[in-house]
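Dear colleague,

Thank you for sharing your sequence with our group. We've completed the structure prediction you requested, and as agreed, I am returning the results in plain text so they can be pasted directly into your records. Please verify that the sequence below matches your submission; if there's any discrepancy, let me know and we will rerun it promptly.
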Amino acid sequence: MHKKLLLSAVIASLCAATSAHAAITSGQLIAIGSLSGSSAGINKDLSGLTGLLENGVAGNFLGGIGSGLAYAGGNTFIATPDRGPNATAYNALVDDTSSYISRFHTITLDLTANTSGTGLAYNLMPTLTATTLLSSATTLNYGTGAGLGNQIDGTPLGSGAPTLNLTNSTNYFSGRSDNFGTANALGAPNSTSANPSNARFDPEGVRVSNDGKSVFISDEYGPYVNQFDRATGERIKSFALPANLAIAHEFAVGATEQLATQNTSGRVTNKGMEGLAITPDGTTLVGMMQAPLLQDVKNSGNVRIVTIDIATGTTHEYAYHLTTGSGVSEIVAINNHEFLVDERDGSGLGNGDSAVVKQLFKIDLTNATDVTNFSANGTPAAKNALTAAAVQKTLFLDVASKLNANGITSANIPAKIEGVAFGQDIYDNGALFHTLYVANDNDFVPGVAGANQFYVFAVADAGLNFQAQQISAVPVPAAAWLFGTALIGLTGFARKRKTV
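Please find the predicted structure tokens below.
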């Protein structure tokens, strides 16, 4: 027997021997797990950071790790928190953001058959194994803090550059909204939001390269897609995205930025490149905007998909038309041309109401219409034309309905279901299934939005045409990210939740 077939037979035999549950079916919820801390303690990551951010909250606070989720081979995944907790009001002139250093987490998600005879078919044990801080070898633009006194006690806000920059002689990316290098911290027009020298970075989608040595992360501020060294967190490359995705004038206050008459095209504030996929062959990144661009009109429901050839940087754009969700949070590859898109509303746990739309749609970019040069210009005819050019889609998985069916009320379904990734295959009662992991962004407020949750669904192999990404194993020592007690005096940690 072929070695691969023999291994499959052994795995199937073991699963059949140990499972005490009925045969699972495609789309079934098979496991739930949560992550609330690490070996460093409850609500603490493994960055090794000590001290506080601007509003007195710990700089190593663990939260929001479901903003993006990527498979890294075996039982290992990469998870990204976004621009940091900003739910505590302390300075509206920077949208209550802080110099929280952008980062990604390495986690293991151990899935084992549940033989107890009760509960879900499988058990899931999430463990945080490393935290990596994101930096640049070249100089970055930071806000000066001039004129931005703390609105609570009037103390000066100070520079947007993390204090750790001086300690490590490193340029770290951070979530503070004024980190785009203007002398007027109130938000005077600067260069385009796509300037790769801007320090403000709001990580969302994440994927791992096929060689396992780097990660690609998309962002909402630019939008940007940056490639980082997986071991050190240092930026390797910033991809040039189409100019029509960026805004011409940046402001530290999102509402001001969005209402600025100078900005007539580009991404909507806090709704940039929310999702990111990589084709299994490792050649192409597929980014997805969360909401319609300014020029595509908010109520058009047309969201842009951007493909990026990793080797050449060549890009193409395609249209996706929302069904009932208010935006898109993730895209993940099934094969080199088919993808799952996470479409959702902003309702649920963390928003104070009941979730309605948390759905995954299947799309195919084969023969899709390139809309790079398409401009809706706000006219009904143009809007309809873009809608007509949108990719075809079919409902693949209704996440909210599946969670409801397993006793999770709509009020307890996380509002921000954002991270989606395929994991290891399983054999259950002789049948092959792919595991699909879905994670939430709890905005660093577990008391309001619940824990960092991971939901695992089984997806039948039959008829899916699934192609797994082959990622080389790369040793990544956890000690590389631990900086010890020398890291003190970090500034600001705000907790205001971003709008959807």
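Summary note from our side: The first strand starts at residue 29 and ends at 35.

Kind regards,
the structure core
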